[in-house]
Amino acid sequence: MSEFESIEEIAKIAILNPSELTSREVQDKVDAMSEEELSKLKVWIFSELIRLEEGKKELKEHQDRFIQDKVSFNEEMRALNQKIVRQQARLKQDEQFFQKKMDILQSGFAQLDNDRQKLNDEKRKFERQKENFESGYQSSYQAQAAASGAVFFRGVTNLFTLKKRYKDLIKLYHPDNLAGDKDTACLIREEYEMLKEKFERNFSGFGT
């Protein structure tokens, strides 16, 4: 056994690298061993077989664990994709809801601008009538003023709506307001008092 120093080396070569030894060489070396050396060789081979079996078992456990981790990963990815899809759908719904709110606001602003324009038109109309009065057409102005006062209360058919309309107009044209006007406020008040007396008289007559 000059080429191989120990029984373990011979066994390793015979098991792991059999091409390095011919079967005859192996047989010769085994035949040359003593009983004690053969016993040691058997023990070593047995321990190596156990070690290899344990290695196979450990490898199988790693493979099973890898497969399990792969399945868990795929399930997590599927759940994550489903969550992303739900979040995208919710985001789309939120965008649609926001757009509806914007449409409503834009429509409200457009209506507000339209109402403001109508109010400004009425105010400009009254300003022209005021200018006519100041230039010397008092009698004509009085008739027009009466008509203008009636314009502010157009469509009013009862005492309740009269009071509500008057309250809204005074808030707008009160002299203390930025866009207020003293003459317009007086005109509104005179028309209100006249219509109020008319409605109260009609109501009183209806009650009797």
What does this 3D model show about the protein?
With 208 residues, the protein is an all-alpha fold. The protein folds into two domains: 7-67, no CATH class; 104-207, no CATH class. It is built from six helices and no strands. It has helices at residues 7-16, 23-32, 35-134, 138-152, 159-173, 182-207. The longest helix is centred in the middle third of the chain and has 100 residues, at 35-134. The N and C termini lie far apart (144 Å). Residues 1-5 and 137-143 have low confidence and may be disordered.
Which bin fits the share of residues in helices? Answer: over 70%
Q: What's the pLDDT, averaged over the residues?
A: 79
Fraction in beta strands: under 5%
How many whole angstroms does the radius of gyration measure?
54 Å
Termini separation (Å)?
144 Å
Low-confidence parts, pLDDT < 50 over ≥5 residues? 1-5, 137-143
What is the tally of helical segments? 6
Structural class: mainly alpha
Task: Write the H/E string, N to C.
Answer: HHHHHH
Domain count: the total is: 2
Global shape: rod-shaped
What composes the largest sheet? none
How many DSSP E strands?
0
